[in-house]
Specification:
By secondary structure, the chain is an alpha+beta fold. About 50% of the residues lie in helices and about 10% in strands. It has a six-stranded mixed beta sheet. Strand 9 and strand 10 form a beta hairpin. The radius of gyration is 34 Å and the shape is elongated. Helix 7 runs antiparallel to helix 8, helix 13 packs across helix 16 and helix 15 packs across helix 16.
Length: about 600
């Protein structure tokens, strides 16, 4: 239930000062520019409509940690009666400009931080209302107005006498009647004409501010948290959308049971940071810490995995209807359940990191799908050590490569998360058939022609599979490439036949694209620097640099599923056809679909 009421601005600002009206902690910090503050102050002095603010009564199920509006300094910490959902910038601007006894922290037109006092020019304010914006004056922190590049003083407002002489009324005292009366007496003594001017100023400006009313929608305390968040995001159209992590941060910090038990607030950001630093420190595939905590595996990924495990457990216990990690599931995740499951999921993601290393995926930039790690971690957390058996590892590996090479995680993923968790758990446990991600995944040979950049999961997948199946570098030829050496050697995916050469040759018009994954292979930086001209021009120099006979170096080339003879003869068309066939076989083997896909391909060829 919600009610609409009109509340005096003075009452609202007093509630801000006392702490009776605060912000839910998920609200971001406020800062409006100087010109916008001047404009909203002018609006109030004219008694023009300000717009509706929205609040939520506290004491219900939607428990958020609260914090004071910027500038409010409460004498003692107190529980608010209302939380401000919409109107933060407006009320904070007015509170700082009209109520607090201090300068307002804001930005100038260039975005530079400044501190300002706000005054109203009495003469201009008692003239035409159309000039009211010009009547609101922004004054530097030292209360001295200067001109001529700050060399000449126009007005010194450091004393009441200086303010009165300039005819500039300090708006931060507008609700303090004794101070206003004292200021008025000094102003009227300045000049007899000020008596009449003050009367008009009080009627046309001060009374408008004192009697100004703000329409306020008040949501009942019984409003659900999901509804509160939905309402907030609809009214907060000018801001950055909130994510679930920010909402849970505020919710967990407001958890009374935790506070009573520990005497402190639960700090979700610190808990997540510890998990992320441990994971990324051991397995760079989860992100580069030097780029910040948001690089790679995200807090939302982790929360989704927790929600998947929690809803799976509830379903097994007969207290839930399905496995899910949608937004409502995350918002309804109790702190006690998160505390219980988070260590399990942290361990599960560490297992995922080790699994990816076995697949030769060790860098965040080489990860085909970050989203696919969410259900994989959930399955590990549910089954625990059962995933380490030989049969289970084979199933998980097949499922993983079907998801990557079938490009199954390229669209909406939440429904696939649910199906994969339930179906993969059942499959490994011998209680179900293969997951749909396995049965529905296909890789058609012509897809190789269009895999040209890292934007494709299958492109990254084939790159990793080439390393996994034993590719030997063309410079460091002692042993196959290993995950631990990829960064040390500067391994990247490189063109075998230079794109320019292919385009200039007759092969360029043959329908065999030069930029396809078929014409690329993983090589070290040292090897890549030697790839100048067509293969026949660089192979012997590579062999000589490696101190290998030609036939031995041909064996090294073959580890990349490349026929060395076709390189030495610069036969791009034959090379492309032969290697495409080799890559198809490698893909089919990884997906466990050799027979099915070969039959489909043969049928298409027969037609």
């Amino acid at each position: 239930m919600a009610g609409l009421d009109n509340v005096r601005l003075k009452t609202l600002l007093a509630d801000v000062a006392s702490g009776a009206l605060q912000l839910p902690d998920f609200q971001r910090e406020w800062k409006w520019q100087d010109d916008r503050i001047r404009a909203i102050v002018a609006t109030v002095t004219l008694d023009y409509p300000l717009g509706v603010v929205m609040t939520l009564e506290t004491g219900g199920d939607s428990r958020f940690r609260a914090r004071a509006l910027t500038g409010a300094r409460m004498a003692v910490e107190m529980e608010p009666g209302l939380l401000l959902l919409d109107g933060q910038q407006r009320l904070t601007s007015l509170f700082q400009a009209l109520f607090q006894d201090g300068p307002v922290e804001t930005d100038d037109a260039r975005g530079n931080p400044v501190k300002r006092w706000y005054y109203v020019d009495i003469v201009k304010a008692t003239g035409s209302p159309t000039d009211r914006d010009e009547a609101i004056v922004s004054v530097p922190e030292d209360k001295v107005l200067r001109t001529n590049f700050a060399r000449d003083i126009v007005h010194d407002l450091t004393s009441t006498e200086g303010e009165c002489a300039a005819g500039l009324f300090p708006l931060h005292i507008v609700f303090d009647t004794p101070r206003v009366n004292a200021w008025r007496r000094v102003y009227e003594r300045e000049d007899e004409s000020h008596l009449d001017r003050w009367s008009r100023f009080e009627e046309q400006v001060l009374e408008h501010v004192r009697s100004f009313q703000v329409p306020m929608i008040k949501l009942a305390a019984s409003t659900s948290m999901d509804a509160v968040c939905a309402v907030f995001e609809r009214v907060n159209t000018g801001g950055v959308p909130l994510n679930v992590f920010e909402l849970l941060t505020a919710t967990y910090a407001g958890d009374r049971a935790y506070r009573e038990r520990t005497g402190d607030y639960y700090q979700l950001p610190q808990a997540w940071q510890a998990v992320k630093e441990e994971l990324a420190g051991r397995y760079p595939v989860f992100g580069r810490l030097e780029l910040g905590i948001d690089d790679g595996l995200s807090s939302s990924d982790f929360l989704q995995a927790v929600a998947l495990v929690r809803t799976w457990q509830l379903k097994q216990e007969g207290r839930g209807t399905g496995v899910s990690c949608k937004r409502p599931d995350l918002l309804e995740l109790p702190l006690a359940d998160f505390e219980s499951l988070a260590p399990r999921l942290a361990d599960a993601f560490a297992w995922v990191g080790a699994f990816l290393e076995k697949q030769c995926i060790v860098r965040a930039s080489d990860l085909p799908y970050r989203t696919q790690l969410v259900p994989l971690a959930a399955v590990r957390a549910i089954l625990r050590d059962a995933t380490d058996s030989l049969g289970a590892e084979d199933m998980i590996t097949q499922w993983y490569w079907c998801g990557v090479l079938g490009e199954m995680y390229g669209g909406s993923t939440e429904t696939r998360f649910t199906r994969d968790v339930e179906q993969l758990v059942g499959w490994i446990g011998g209680r179900g058939v293969a997951p749909e991600t396995v049965t529905d995944a296909y890789f058609f040979p012509e897809r190789l022609d269009t895999l040209t950049t890292r934007n494709s999961a299958a492109y990254k997948g084939i790159y990793a599979l080439l390393i996994k199946q034993g590719a030997v570098d063309w410079h460091y030829t002692d042993a196959p490439l290993k995950p631990a050496l990829l960064d040390e050697y500067g391994v990247n995916i490189c063109q075998v036949f230079p794109r320019g050469w292919v385009r200039r040759s007759r092969s360029g018009s043959s329908g065999f694209p030069a930029n396809s994954i078929v014409n690329k292979t993983p090589l070290s930086l040292r090897a890549a620097q030697s790839l100048t001209g067509p293969p026949a021009a660089y192979l012997d120099s590579l062999a000589a640099a490696s101190d290998l006979r030609r036939e031995w170096f041909d064996d090294v080339i073959a580890t990349h599923l490349i026929d060395p003879y076709l390189l030495r003869t610069n036969d791009y068309e034959a090379f492309y056809s032969a290697r495409a066939k080799q890559l198809e076989d490698m893909v089919y083997a990884a997906m466990g679909k050799r027979t099915i896909l070969r039959d489909i391909t043969d049928e298409k060829a027969a037609r």
